[in-house]
Write a structure and sequence with these properties.
about 325 residues; mainly alpha; about 0% strand
Length: about 325
């Protein structure tokens, strides 16, 4: 007689027992539940729902551990996705093409729960073609939950003049509002997209990045120049307080000789902001020395921050000085 097929309830009970015996093995439990979903793909069963919930919870724990270890891109966990998860992503991606809106919405929610960046292409393609509001929101939320550089890189391929640019910008801003590492990554992509869109889109993006605090600072710094003039001083002041030295290069674009009117106010705000960022900003200011309009004041701030007096204000000269003094300047 052929061997009796395994009972999903028995297999799931075995995984629960493993979790109890090995409470610290989050990757091992994640892999076992993911394998269960691939082996027993009937999404109507209670066992499937329970296993999917545990995969979602364990995936969150894995990403939390990674974020605490390194404030970096959570997509770096993607290489650790077990083969079973990839198989499951392929299965669910097929459901995104179903004729039934509720099936498409359910597949999107499942993909969001899995958290694999490898679902990004299928989800975005489905999102841009979706006409049902419930499925559309489920796909948007799934992409925002997955986040990471892979998703943002895929979204960044949409051009500002595309009819889909508004949808993509909304999605990126949803990721920004969720906070954390994804807010920083999505913020840069949102700013780059909004810069080529209309004034309303730029204003909405700038305010969202401002509300995101330090995580939105780098993206905001690239967008300030194209923002309404009355908001620029507040944005510049915020960037100085946010503490991310990478914004210094963009702030230096406001350093011009003999500024008048609103430009003078922006110039003064930029001087104050860059000064408050201090020595960590030096490496990001040096490339701006190539810009004729900004060279004089950028060099002046470099001298004020470092106390150095190189022979000239050329980028090459300052780069040589930086290489020789980097350890003392940055403490590394």
């Amino acid at each position: 007689a052929p061997p009796k097929p395994p009972d999903p309830a028995d297999v799931l009970a075995g995984i629960r027992d493993y979790e109890k015996a090995h409470p610290g093995d989050v990757p091992g439990a994640h892999e076992r539940y993911s394998r269960f979903l691939a082996e027993f793909p009937d999404r109507s069963t209670a066992e499937y729902g329970e296993a999917l919930k545990r995969v979602e919870e364990l995936d969150g724990r894995l990403k939390d551990v990674y974020r605490k270890a390194r404030d970096d891109d959570p997509d770096a966990l993607a290489d650790a996705d077990p083969a079973e998860v990839l198989k499951l992503v392929d299965q669910l991606a097929g459901d995104l093409l179903s004729a039934e809106p509720n099936v498409r919405a359910r597949a999107a929610r499942f993909l969001g729960s899995l958290g694999s960046g490898k679902a990004a292409d299928a989800l975005l393609a489905a999102l841009l073609a979706e006409s049902d509001s419930e499925a559309f929101e489920a796909m948007k939320d799934a992409l925002a939950r997955i986040g990471g550089r892979r998703v943002c890189a895929r979204l960044a391929k949409v051009k500002p003049d595309s009819e889909k640019s508004g949808v993509v910008l909304d999605l990126l801003l949803l990721m920004v509002k969720k906070g954390g590492v994804n807010a920083r990554i999505a913020g840069e992509a949102a700013a780059a997209l909004a810069a080529g869109m209309n004034e309303a889109a730029r204003a909405e993006t700038a305010e969202a990045l401002l509300a995101a605090g330090p995580a939105g600072a780098l993206g905001l710094s690239g967008l300030v120049e194209s923002c309404p003039v009355e908001r620029k001083p507040a944005y510049i002041e915020h960037l100085g307080n946010a503490g991310d030295p990478r914004v210094a290069g963009n702030l230096a674009r406001f350093l011009v000789v003999n500024p008048q009117g609103a430009r003078r106010t922006q110039h003064q705000a930029a001087v104050k902001a860059i000064t408050s960022l201090g020595k960590p900003a030096v490496r990001y200011l040096i490339p701006v020395l190539d810009e004729k309009e900004n060279q004089v004041w950028t060099a002046e701030l470099l001298r004020q921050i470092t106390g150095a007096k190189p022979k000239d204000d050329k980028r090459k000269t300052w780069e040589k000085w930086f290489r020789e003094n980097r350890r003392a300047l940055e403490g590394r």
